[in-house]
Amino acid sequence: MTPLPPCPKCASEFTYEDGNLHICPECSHEWTPQAQADSPLLSRVVKDAYGNVLADGDTVTVIKDLKVKGSSSVVKVGTRVKNIRLADGDHDIDCKVDGFGAMGLKSEFVKKA
């Protein structure tokens, strides 16, 4: 038996099959396996350092001092970043940090506020 994929809407791991559909008991989302395979955006889930699912427009807090590449300055622990955008690549969050400007962050160094 192959494990079922997590829910593309809420990332719950408690999905089950009902005929041709996969169903999430937590958010009641229903989808076909083919629909998920056709849409890579739905299957990509970005989580913060504590496992919370992130989405565009969320506010996050930095959990570790982060050196800014090409500069001697540091983004301090506790810095709040508003209105994030999820992106593809190694740095999966695009945002504007007050005092630093636009930059990319890794989701493993933030928590959802």
UniProtKB/TrEMBL annotation:
* Every Protein YjdM N-terminal domain range: 4-32
Q: Which PANTHER family match?
A: PROTEIN YJDM, PROTEIN YJDM-RELATED
Instruction: Please give the name of this protein.
Output: Protein PhnA
Q: Which organism is it from?
A: Panacagrimonas perspica
Q: Where is the Protein YjdM C-terminal domain?
A: 46-113
InterPro entries of this UniProt entry?
A: YjdM, YjdM_C, YjdM_N
Question: Superkingdom of this entry's organism?
Answer: Bacteria
The family classification in the record reads: Belongs to the YjdM family.
Specify the signal sequence span. none
Database matches in Pfam families? YjdM, Zn_Ribbon_YjdM
The major lineage groups are: Bacteria, Pseudomonadati, Pseudomonadota, Gammaproteobacteria, Nevskiales
